[in-house]
Design a protein that fits this description.
The chain is built from three helices and no strands. By secondary structure, the chain is mainly alpha-helical. The protein has one domain (about 10-65).
């Protein structure tokens, strides 16, 4: 039998609970959950050109150091 390796604090019961939650959601509930997550965050998601990723990472590192 294959051994499952879970992150710290996770086990099969927790995985099943999370799966059950998301599998039982309606499309509307899933969208509402996603939107609520973004409304609470102080971060954003955006597309940037791949060649700018290193520069953006450097800016983030510099900001965290301040």
């Amino acid at each position: 039998m294959e051994q499952n390796n879970f992150p710290p604090g996770w086990n099969l019961e927790r995985v099943k609970k999370v799966l059950s939650h998301y599998e039982s959601q309606s499309d509307e509930e899933a969208v509402a959950e996603d939107e609520a997550t973004f409304e609470k965050s102080k971060q954003t998601v955006m597309e940037i050109p791949v060649d700018l990723v290193p520069a953006v990472r450097e800016l983030i590192i510099k900001r965290k150091a301040v």
